[in-house]
Amino acid sequence: MKKLHFLLFLISPFLFSQNLEERIYAASETFIANKTEAELIKLTEKEQHYKSRIKSKDEQLALVFLQCHKGFYLKETGRLTTSILSYEEASKRFFNNELSVISNFDIIESCLKPLGNLYIQINDYTNAISTINHYILLAKNQQNTKHQNSGYINLAILYQTLGKHNTALQTLELATLKPIKNNKQWQLIHQLKIKSFIALNNFKTAQALNNQLQSNFEKHKNNYAIALKLNNIPLAISEFKKAKALIKKEQVSARYLAKFYFEEAQLHVLNQNNTSAKLSLQHALDFLLPNHNKLKLPNTKSLYAENTFIDIFDLFASIETNISKALNYLDLSFYVSRLLQEKSTSQENKIQHQASNRLRSETCIHFLYNRFKNSGDKKNIIAALQYAESNKSGVLKKIATKKLRLQEFPNDSLLITEFKLLAEQERLTSELIQAEIKNSDTQKINTLSTALNSVSVELKRLQPSINEKYENYKTNKFSLEELQNLLHKDEATCLEFFFGNRAIYLFKITKNDINLDKIELDETVLNQIKNFIHLFDNASIINNNLANFSINAFRLFQLLKLERIESKNVVIIPDGLLNFVPFEALLTKKTESTLYQNMPFLVTQHNIAYNSSAVFYTQNIKPKTNKNVLGVFPVFENENQALPYSLNEATHIKEHFKGDYLIKQAATKQAFLNRVEHFGIIHLSTHASSGNFSLPANISFIDDTLFLNELYTLNLNPDLVILSACETGIGKLYKGAGAMSIARGFQYAGAENLLFSLWQINDLSTSQMMQLFYKSYKNSKSAFQANVFSKRSYLNSETISNAKKSPYYWSAFVYYGQLDNPIKNNNLIYVIIGSLISLFIVFLRRKLKRHAA
To answer: What would the mean pLDDT of 258-267 be, rounded to a whole number?
Structure first.
C-alpha cells in the first residue's frame, strides 16, 4: 500500500498537468461554441486562475490558444484595445517559452496577423510595422509564401494609411515575386495597387488593373474613386450607388460598413447635400455603436479607440451650423484621439496623433475667434487658448508630468519600473534607428523590433495600476490663472502663437487681460516668414544687403502684430515655422542706420525668453541646487572643422565655475553619459546637426555621435543646459510637437532651462557670446538675464567690428526657460558696512588717545 501511495505521489504532478492543459482547452472550446458576454466573463476569470498555475510548455500553449480566441472575439465586438492586450500576451507567452519547439501551432495566422491589423486600426504604426516584419521573417524561415504575402499586403495597407503610396506599391511588388496560388490574395493585391495608382493620379494603370478584378462591387468602388479624383461628381455618385446595391453580397465587417457610409457622407457633402450626409454619418455611427441613442450625441463612455469615430465626428462638425454643436463633435474626436494615444507607447505615434489634432484645434480656434468678434466675450479667447495649449508639445508635457510625479514619490516601485521601461524603449528605438541607417541584417532589425514590442507590452500592462493609484494626481494642465499670476510676478507679457494651415493666431496675455489676433496665412505671408529665416543661411546675406534686412525685419515685426507690448519682459511661445525665427533680431521701427548697435532691435527694448508651451513656463520642476559645470569641449584638432576658440570658452568658464571639464580626447560620448545626470549646469561646445530625412538630429563627441533618441533615455533635472553648437534647435518640424532637435531631446530628458542655436555660426563669435553670457551668469545667477546681457554687450562692444555685429552672429542663440530674477549684488552693502566699521574703529582709537592724554 505504501508503494502505491509513493507511486501516486510521483505521477500526480503529471496527472495534474495533463488535467490542467485539458481544462484550459475545454474552457476555450466551451467559449468558442457559445460566444456571449456571460461566457467571456467566465473565460476571463478562468484565464486569471490558470495563469498562476501553469508550468509546462503544453500548458503555456493551451493558454496561448485561449488568449488568441479571446482576442478574436474582442476584436469582432469592437473592443480593439482589450483585444490587442490579449493578442500581445499570447504572442509574448508563445515566443518567451519557445513553444514552436513543441508544436506547429500557427502563431502567425492565429495571433500576429490580427495583432498587426489591430495596430493599424488604432494608428499604432510603430508596433504595426514591428509585428508585421516579425511574421514576414518567420514566414520566410518557414517557407510559407502565403503568410509572407499577407505580411506584404498588410504593410502596404499601413503605408497607404500614411499616404506613402509609392512605398505601398514597392511593397506589393515583393508579394508578387513568387507565384500567388491564393486567388483571394491576388485579388486583394490588385485592389491595393489600384488604390495607390488612383492616389498617384495614374488612372490609366488603375483602370487596366480594375478590369481584371472579379468583384463588381470593387470595380464600381474604384470607378467611383477615379471619378472623384477627376472631380466628376455625377459619375462618382452613380458608381457609388452601383457599389452600394452590391454591398450586401460582400462579406464585410461592421467597421468596413461604417467606413463605407462615411465615404457616402463625404460624397453628399461634395454634392452640397448636408441633410443626406448627416443620415449617412448616422448610419456609419450605428454600425460602430449599435445601441447608441440616435437622438443624442454619443456618450464618451460608449466610445473606444477606433479612428473611424474621428472621421465621423470631424465630418459632422464640418457641416454643423451651430458652433456649440460643432465644438461638441470636435471634442468627441479629441476624446477618441486621446484614447488612441493612451494605447500607444511610442513617441512617434503620439506625435502623429498630435499632427492630426492640430487641424482640429485650428477649426475650434477659428469658430471661437469668430464668436469672439461677434460677441466681444473674452471667454471665447480663453476657450481658444485652451485648444491651442492642449495640442502643443503633448509628448513633452506627458513626460514632464511623469517626472514631476516621480520627483514627488521617488520610492514608488511602479513609477521606478515605468521609467526603466521608458528608458529601455528609447534605447531600443535608438539602436533600431542606427541599425536601419547602417543597413544591418534583417535578423538584427527584427530582434530589436521584437524587443521593442515586448517593452511596449510591459508599459501597457503597468499603466492601469499607475492610473488607478494616481487617479487624482494633478496633471500638467493649462491654467490661465496660474499663467497670469506668474506673469504678474515676472512683470511680463506672454505672446503665444498658433500656426495653422489657414491662419496664424496670436494670444497676448498679461497679468490681468487676454487678447487674440488673427493673421491670414497666404503664400505672401508664408514667403515673408521663410525669406526672413533664410536671411540667416550664411554670414554674408545680411551684410551684403543691409537695407533689405532692415525692411524685412520691420515688416515681419508688423506682420506678427508685436507693437504695443508694454512690459519689459516678454515670454514668446512660437509655433510652426516661427520656431526658427530669431524674434530678438526683428526691428521695432524703420531705420536707415548702417551701424548695427544703433538699430532698434527688439532685444534692445525687451528682455526675451522663449518656451514650448505656457504649461512649461508655469511648471515647477525642482532643478539641481549645485552650480557645478559638466563641460564638453572635443575641439577636433587637426580636422577640417576644428574648434580652436572652444578652448578659450572652456578657460573662461573654468575661471568662474567649478566642475568636470572634458577637453579634447577626454570628451568622449561615454564619459559624458556617465556624468551628465550629476551636474547642475551642462555645457556642450561641439558640432551638431539637425539631421535629414533618414538621420535624426545628433551631436558630436570626439569618438562618437549621440543621436536624438539616446537623449530620451536620460533622466535629468539640471538648472541649465547650454548647447554651444550649431543647429541644436533645428530638426524635422512636426505640427504640435515642434522641431525634433537636440534641444528637444534635452527637454524630454528633463531640462527646463536651455540656451541653444538656430543656425551655424563661427567658432569665434560663439566663444565671445559664451564668455559674455557666463560673465553675467556668474554675478546674476539668472540665465534669462545673462542671455539678454550677452547680446546687448556684444552689440555695444568696441572690440567687435560692425560687420561682426550683424544679427547673424548674436541672435542665433535663444533661451527657453524661466524668467529667474537676478540675485542682487550685495558688494556695495559690504563696502558700506566695512567703511562704517573702519570709521568706528578710527573714532574709538582717537577717543582712547584723548582719554590716555
So the answer is: 94
Spatial separation of the C-alpha atoms in residues 54 and 23, rounded to whole Å = 11
d(CA 498, CA 574): 8
For residue 810, the model assigns a pLDDT of: 92
How far apart are the C-alpha atoms of 523 and 68, rounded to whole Å? 53
| Cell representation of residue 619 | 511648471
pLDDT tens, 73-118? Answer: 998 887 888 899 999 999 989 988 999 999 999 999 999 999 999 9
pLDDT at residue 827 in the model? 45
What's the one-letter identity of residue 190? H
Cell of 425: 524603449
Pick the CATH number of 617-827 from 3.30.450.20, 3.10.129.10, 3.40.50.2300, 3.40.50.1460: 3.40.50.1460
pLDDT confidence bin for 347, thresholds 50/70/90:
low
pTM of the model as a whole: 0.82
- Dist. CA 792–CA 794, nearest whole Å: 5
Beta strands 738-740 and 732-734 are: antiparallel
Looking at the DSSP assignment, which residues form a beta bridge with residue 700?
705
Quote the cell numbers at residue 271: 454634392
- Tell me the three cell numbers of residue 703: 569618438
Question: What is the structure's pLDDT at 842?
Answer: 44
Domain ranges of the chain: 480-614, 617-827
Angle (CA) 319 323 328, round 5°: 85
Residue 450 contacts residue 130 (beta carbons within 8 Å)? yes
Tell which wins on pLDDT, 709 or 500.
500
Given a cut of 80, whether residue 836 has pLDDT beyond it is no
Q: How many Å apart are CA 553 and CA 840, to the nearest integer? A: 59
Burial 559-577 (b: 16+ CB within 10 A, else e): bbbbeebebebbbbbbbbb
Contacts of 434 (CB under 8 A, 6+ apart): 707
**495, 573 in Cβ contact below 8 A?**
yes
